[in-house]
Write a structure and sequence with these properties.
CATH topology of the largest domain: 2-enoyl-CoA Hydratase, Chain A, domain 1
Strand content: 5-15%
CATH superfamily of the largest domain: 2-enoyl-CoA Hydratase, Chain A, domain 1
Number of domains: 2
Largest sheet: 5 strands, parallel
CATH architecture of the largest domain: Alpha-Beta Complex
Helix content: 40-55%
Number of helices: 12
Strand order of the largest sheet: 1-2-4-6-9
Number of strands: 9
Distance between the termini: 23 Å
Radius of gyration: 19 Å
Structural class: alpha/beta
């Protein structure tokens, strides 16, 4: 999936955010093994919310409505039935960075700029995006990124834990496609179940029943076709052939 608004540095409009959430919950994703989320072109992943076009006296309301849709799109990414990998092909700023943070992990070209300029606009960032940043980087590092508004290069973001893998510009898509192929080689039931348990662990204590989520998925896995195929393939010395979508819900 490409964020396509190149004339505006791939800034996301409200319509684009609605479409992203809808696509991530649609049948095309269910028939895939993974989603690669990137920006159009080779300069920008996304510059965040597109605030152009709103009259001066409506900009605050426009921003607040955009924030809510950004949260919904980020939740659709985090809760997607398939892993979503951010392919950071260029600058990821503001809400664009929030979309990337919601992905399962982030692969970035080493010269990409990463930044969160909200404080320079006078915005106290919404807690959902702040929470993801704190989970990825820790409070002190998230604090520095958010309250200075200073963009950093992906190489520094890698050191901070905000980016998971760095590549040169020419290797970016080869690395991303290999990551998707690695996911595709694994059991869809195991992938979906592991992601569900990790998400339960990430929630605040008392919000989710981690043991219950894990038990439900483990029962499904032990009684499902993927484990039988995986064990059979292991004993026969071949790669397993898993049926996408079989029994994972």
């Amino acid at each position: 999936m490409r964020i396509h608004n190149p004339d505006r540095a791939n800034a996301v409009t409200r319509a684009m955010l609605r479409s992203l959430a809808s696509l991530l919950n649609g049948p095309a994703v269910e028939s895939a093994h993974a989603v690669l989320l990137t920006g159009a072109g080779d300069r920008h992943f996304s510059a965040g919310l597109d605030l152009a076009g709103a009259p001066a006296d409506e900009r605050v309301a426009h921003l607040r409505a955009g924030e809510e849709l950004l949260f919904q799109a980020s939740e659709a990414i985090a809760g997607c039935v398939r892993p979503v990998i951010a392919v950071v092909n260029g600058a990821a700023l503001g809400g664009g960075l929030e979309l990337a943070m919601a992905c399962d992990w982030r692969i970035a070209r080493e010269d990409a700029r990463i930044g969160m300029p909200a404080a320079r606009l006078g915005v106290v960032y919404a807690p959902q995006g702040l929470r993801r940043a704190v989970e990825l980087m820790g409070a002190a590092r998230a604090r520095r990124l958010f309250i200075t508004g200073r963009p950093i290069l992906a190489a520094e973001a890698f050191d901070l834990g905000l980016v998971d893998e760095l590549t040169g510009p020419e290797e970016l898509w080869g690395v991303a496609q290999r990551a998707a192929a690695d996911v595709a080689a694994c059991s869809p039931i195991a992938v979906a179940g592991t992601r569900a348990v990790i998400r339960a662990i990430e929630l605040e204590p008392g919000v989710s029943d981690v043991a219950g989520v894990a038990d439900r998925w483990r029962v499904r896995a032990f009684g499902g076709p993927d484990l039988r195929e995986g064990l059979r393939a292991f004993s026969e010395g071949r790669a397993p052939r898993f049926d996408i979508g079989a029994g994972e819900r």
